[in-house]
Fold this sequence. Notes:
The structure is a homodimer of 329-residue chains.
Chain A: H1 4-11, H2 15-23, H3 30-43, H4 49-56, E1 61-66, H5 73-87, E2 91-96, H6 101-113, E3 118-121, E4 138-141, E5 150-153, H7 155-168, E6 173-178, H8 184-198, E7 203-208, H9 214-227, E8 233-235, H10 239-251, E9 261-266, E10 280-282, H11 285-300, E11 309-312, E12 315-317
Parallel strand pairs in A: 1-2, 1-3, 3-4, 4-5, 5-11, 6-7, 6-8, 8-9, 9-10
Antiparallel strand pairs in A: 10-12
The structure holds a DNA duplex (16 and 16 nucleotides).
Amino acid sequence: MATIRDVAKKAGVSVATVSRALNDKGYVHEDTRKLINKAIQELNYKPNEVARSLYKKKSRLIGLLLPDIRNPFFPELARGVEDTMQEHGFRLIIGNADENPAKELDYIHTFKQNNVIGLISATNQTETSYYESLGFPVVFLDRTSRQHPSVYADGLAGGKMAAQEIVKRGSKRITLLKGPMELKTAQDRFKGAIDELCHSNVNFNVMTTASFTFDDAEKTAQELFDKFPETDGVIAGNDLGAAAILHEALRRGISIPDELQIIGYDDIPLSSLLFPPLSTIRQPAYDMGKEAAKLLIAIINNELIEQKNIQLPVTFIDRQTTRKVEDNG
Amino acid sequence: MATIRDVAKKAGVSVATVSRALNDKGYVHEDTRKLINKAIQELNYKPNEVARSLYKKKSRLIGLLLPDIRNPFFPELARGVEDTMQEHGFRLIIGNADENPAKELDYIHTFKQNNVIGLISATNQTETSYYESLGFPVVFLDRTSRQHPSVYADGLAGGKMAAQEIVKRGSKRITLLKGPMELKTAQDRFKGAIDELCHSNVNFNVMTTASFTFDDAEKTAQELFDKFPETDGVIAGNDLGAAAILHEALRRGISIPDELQIIGYDDIPLSSLLFPPLSTIRQPAYDMGKEAAKLLIAIINNELIEQKNIQLPVTFIDRQTTRKVEDNG
DNA sequence: TTGAAAGCGCTACCAT
DNA sequence: ATGGTAGCGCTTTCAA
């Protein structure tokens, strides 16, 4: 591996000059620059980012912490972050916290020890103390926060919307699935839904799901039909949960959406691939990632931030697990 | 951030002694060690990995390069790698190459510039020259290779198995979906299937899918039913593709599995959540990730490797997009 | 058993 | 416009 010394020697200049040429800082004569570039070419020289980072105490690396890489919502988020970071010359290192505080802390250390220049965290932990005095800016993604900059979708509105749409379409005995307690975003959408349901003229009951994983989704689905067989409308905590409900309903020969309506949450790519395609509340995952990246970059560049908590709107995606609305006039 | 100097000062010893204590190298008196540990505690000292890495030219970081983080197969792979690496004290940095050679190369540079100690690559590019003379070991995952160590599932057997099972269950006019040309693993399973089909007594035709993405899967599904309406059995290139076929078939009112049988490939978590649940050839993604991690660690530790190309078996998962087999005697 | 000092590759200050 | 050099935090000889 060629070093800056090798380049300097080959170009017949000092390392200081090479460094200046490399970073476009200070004066470098045009001819000298050409000499240097030639040497760089010939040696296939790439600056050692570790040495750079050691001196500057900042790398070009951004940490991205995901709670569960297996939930399709998060890769989508990650892509939004990645694409934006790429454009701005930052590189992403992704950590998967696995809904596990110990792993989360571990990754935060790794990020810190490797001099990341900033961190985007999409984990669910309430333990915000991990993020204090890290020495680099943090943006929370898919999570609200007062103290830290954050990007999230409007969960209250989303929950309300889900309830409105399913009621409007005629469900009378609704089961509302409540996501994990510790997940603030899940609680928001739950709260939005329950508010709306309380103000409407329908019966409903509430079931709590332990987590947003495949396994728990399947368990919850089974339980739902055993406990509340008269349900004619389900508002799920996320699309994975909705997919499991849909699956179980079809298995039991329940006709969708005639006997049972289902509304999911997230609009993960899989949702349109289900049959019938899933009606859901769409969170703009990719855009959320993009916004978080832009926000972090702005902070890194010390731009003044007009809005450090960005809330993105959600939309109802009217597919085929809900009936066509009757009134339209 | 406390440095090793601070610790040394506080403990009243030299930095060299602290370093020795830190790394369990050379002699350190028990009393001195206690003093040092106390200082480390009080200062909440964490060694700077960047400085370490600069000197040793090796970090504790492992690069993992994924072709497409949105395809659920890869997060599964990643989890296998991650869990094993975690156990051994290595940290993972994940890059998403997005099926894009430029991004792939870019990540390889990032890994190199950040002194990763090893790399696991699950990308599809045939461009193996990127991986020459990197200065650290590389293990290919979900990809065969002669020159480099690799871990993959038996695609030939998988394709053959898919064909056998669907023929055994009575499909007579089969459409075989062929994955992207540049994807060696896809070609293997295709080859396995077509070999078997040629030796059997059924008609079949072949359709090529552009890529293994959600969008292309949907397009291919539409096309299939337009072009080959008489198809009574589909062997898909992967589960995403199979899900799209299933979706389109149900949309057109085709009864599954009575009129049409479908076999997928991968067994991603979503497959059992579809309705009817998808019959598929299972690749042990998590285990593949684990094996790749173990192999890389062995190479890093200079252990002698008895087997540098590890092939894992695939299995047929008999769910409900295939009929029950008739003969069983 | 311990410490002084060199050096990993780079940047930035200060001379020239 | 260019170069010498200190120093980022750590590990590792080598000497004591």
